[in-house]
Amino acid sequence: MTENIYSPLEDRYESGMSYMRCGESGILLPRVSLGLWHNFGAVDTLSNCRKILHYAFDHGITCFDLANNYGPPYGSAEETFGQIMKSSFRPYRDEMIITTKAGYDMWKGPYGIGGSRKYLMASLDQSLKRMNLDYVDIFYSHRFDPDTPVRETLQALVDIVRSGKALYIGISKWPFEATQYAFTYLNNHDVPCLIYQGRYNMIDRTVESAGTLTQAKENGVGFTAFSPLEQGMLTDRYINGIPEDSRAAKNKFLKQEKITPEWINKLNALKIIAGERGQTLAQMALSWVLKDDRVTSVIVGSSSVNQLADSLKCVDNVSFSNDELEEINRIIFG
Ligand SMILES: NC(=O)c1ccc[n+]([C@@H]2O[C@H](COP(=O)([O-])OP(=O)(O)OC[C@H]3O[C@@H](n4cnc5c(N)ncnc54)[C@H](OP(=O)(O)O)[C@@H]3O)[C@@H](O)[C@H]2O)c1
């Protein structure tokens, strides 16, 4: 069987995507990155995965967010990405920021989970094989492991960069104090932390109240927001019920009990504001995250090209009036 030869759109960098400097680094990130947590596993349709990835790259998305355990099954999102890397993206590798992570349970036994040097190094080697890559651009500690000495985790990250298997380091979901220690340690070892990855959206504002956004900014570190649509809850996906092919239908990571009639009323009210802004709900939710210039990029998930096409337009209008912000707060929390 002959492979489809992929030619990306010539005008991919003129299609509306904007880029922001990641902290005080040399790297610019697209304001919208694509995440492969869901919809890219072995259980998903490869042709759809390919279409979404091609669409993303064709429209200026240069940052692809993966982790060792994305699938299902674990590892299979990296394998999917690896296949498309081989068949489509190989000539464009230098135009891409590809990330992976380790921290959660990945393989059996005591060395397949956590923050040990043993686990992080072995996991990255496995990820590179699955993705058909020599190196990743960003390697993340996926979570803080209180049972591993923090210096061991951080020194492993430093050594990973020194080995050339990752160009930059990121940390995800680390608590405030440990994050400050990490930023300092990494700086002192000449491998400054590039980016912090945390959940941030109109519903979940923990990174504001915990001081994480300001901490990243003050340390010259970028911030990227995961689940900016709260897994689809901040879109029109559930306004008329729970579609069979939706994440909530699986009732695993997004529980159906969250889609209450009260929440649907709130969505309908938010939709009016979005409409007045000339946006869909999803676009407004993403723009809301991007309005804060401490946020470098939102990592959006998509199960179809149509969703991604819709989401991408969020970059067109990332400013909000005070009245809009107050009304959004009143609807969500009032
Ligand atoms: N560091 C971490 O621990 C961590 C944790 C979670 C996520 N992440 C990263 O963040 C990425 C994004 O997370 P997420 O998938 O939870 O993101 P999300 O963007 O909050 O939700 C994505 C889901 O929303 C729905 N959707 C997306 N665009 C839509 C649109 N325009 N209109 C209507 N519905 C739309 C789709 O649901 P359906 O699938 O139902 O169609 C899609 O799968 C992940 O892929 C991963 O890379 C990292």
Task: Kindly describe this structure.
With 334 residues, the protein is an alpha/beta fold. It is 39% helix and 14% strand. The chain is built from twelve helices and ten strands. An eight-stranded parallel barrel has the order 3-4-5-6-7-8-9-10, surrounded by six helices. Strand 1 and strand 2 form a beta hairpin. The protein starts with 18 loop residues before the first strand and ends with a helix. The mean pLDDT is 97. The site of NADP nicotinamide-adenine-dinucleotide phosphate has 31 residues, from strand 10 and helix 11. This is L-glyceraldehyde 3-phosphate reductase. It comes from Lepagella muris.
Walk me through the topology.
Layout: E1 19-21, E2 28-30, E3 32-35, H1 46-58, E4 63-65, H2 76-89, E5 97-102, H3 117-131, E6 136-141, H4 150-162, E7 166-172, H5 176-188, E8 193-199, H6 206-209, H7 212-218, E9 222-226, H8 247-250, H9 261-276, H10 281-290, E10 297-300, H11 305-312, H12 322-333
Parallel strand pairs: 3-4, 3-10, 4-5, 5-6, 6-7, 7-8, 8-9, 9-10
Antiparallel strand pairs: 1-2
The structure holds NADP nicotinamide-adenine-dinucleotide phosphate.
| Cα separation of the termini | 58 Å
CATH architecture classification name: Alpha-Beta Barrel
Shape assignment: globular
Report the bound ligands by name, code or SMILES.
NADP nicotinamide-adenine-dinucleotide phosphate
H/I helix tally: 12
Pairing-aware structural class of the strands and helices? alpha/beta
Enter the CATH topology name.
TIM Barrel
Protein name: L-glyceraldehyde 3-phosphate reductase
